[in-house]
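Fold this sequence, please.
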Amino acid sequence: MKQDGFAIQHIKSPTERVQLEAVKQYGHVIQHIQNPSERVQLEAVKKYGHAIYYIKNPSKLVQLEAVKQNGSVIEHIKNPSERVQLEAVKNDGFAIRHIQNPSERVQLEAVKQNGYAIEHIKSPSELVQFEAVKQDESTIVFLKNIPDKVRLEFADKMRSKFLS
């Protein structure tokens, strides 16, 4: 296993130790393991977040580790908890595009990580708009019905850019 993790597909009933060696090399070899333990699942998603695609009913802990490794894998998680959503957008603000009806808290984390994530938020609150423009003033192009507070933040950022 230490030389080629893919060899696991040729082993009938590999031990957990063998499974761990395989997924530590290549997380996606989990697809060749029947009923992997949570420990094996965790190692797989730590190595390769997309390995969650091959895991049936991953635990919350496995979900969290997967989105910490790659936020966009939230698209493979059914009904992710708010905590999982938050970890996903902290890792990759654009992961919000895979979340249905994200809470304002999740929206805020997404635009703090990447202001351009606002493009994927339907009807962002004034606070979310403000944080997006604060993170990157050019995100104002994605906003409609811009509140005065957001306009002022944009003007302040532009003024400081030209005065410095």
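Helices lie at 16-25, 38-47, 60-69, 82-91, 104-113, 126-135, 148-163. The CA atoms of residues 57 and 78 lie 9 Å apart.
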